[in-house]
Amino acid sequence: MLSLVQPNQYYQVFLAQGVGMGIGMGIIMLPALSVTSHYFRRRRSIAIGVVIAGSSTGAVVYSILLNNLFNGKIGFPWGVRISAFIDLAFLLTANLVMKTRLPSRRERPNAKPVDIRAILSDRGYWLCIIGAALVFWGLFVPFFYLQVFAELHGLPKTLAFYAIPIMNASSLFGRTIPNFLGDYFGPFNIMIPCTIISGGLMYLMFAATGVAGTVVFGILYGFFSGGFISIITPAVASFSRDLNEIGTRIGIACFVIGFALLTGTPIAGALVQQNHNGPYIWWRPLVFASIVVLTGAACLIASRQILSKRKSTHVL
What we know:
Major facilitator superfamily (MFS) profile domain-containing protein
């Protein structure tokens, strides 16, 4: 549908890219994470990290691929269609190989039902969700605005374009290495430092006015933000008292976090510009993003304390 969008028809982009693809990606993501969680317990963090790292790989490949297709002889419509055919091949493969480890509830009539009331009254779990939502509220601001920031500060467009692929390439390692450590030291113990560092690194974006500053910021922010993005899922799953709860808990968390992802970057866009013709004011969105990320980190610390008392361990 996106390939059929007409110029200057925003509602078509909104329906195809925003609504249609948003629903589709949500349907794809949740089962992939839940099924993976069922297969692993001791190595759950790294397993989920590998799954989520695929999005970093795709972000690097697709951004470069589509940029060349859109600006070359292929053009926008067929550029989108080519990427759709690639997606179709990968999705068909994933659906053929992905299989649940546990039988469905219909096949297990004596299985213990998920206690929704207990989940909804779990204070530590909700603190984790609120913290994650606050972090996601500001975490993607650099991903959306670093390229524009670099261009406005004198970087050539070609070089500024690669700022985002550099960040996503670094995020590939950030979504695997911290998760590997999370299996040994606990997801919360790795996620919280990554979150705090990400909040502090927001201010380093002011130094991304040259090649060196842009590359250094992209590498550092991509790595540590990736550490949070990939490890929040096993952190949420760690509140589950039974394997049957994992999908439900992850689903509720994704539902709440979705509102933060929906509103975070538009708020930053409104803050960055004083009026339609005015200059960009970069400190406002970056301070906003940093404050909400660090506030989210505080909620995650409180959530960890509750879970630590419940499980009588500090390896969380």
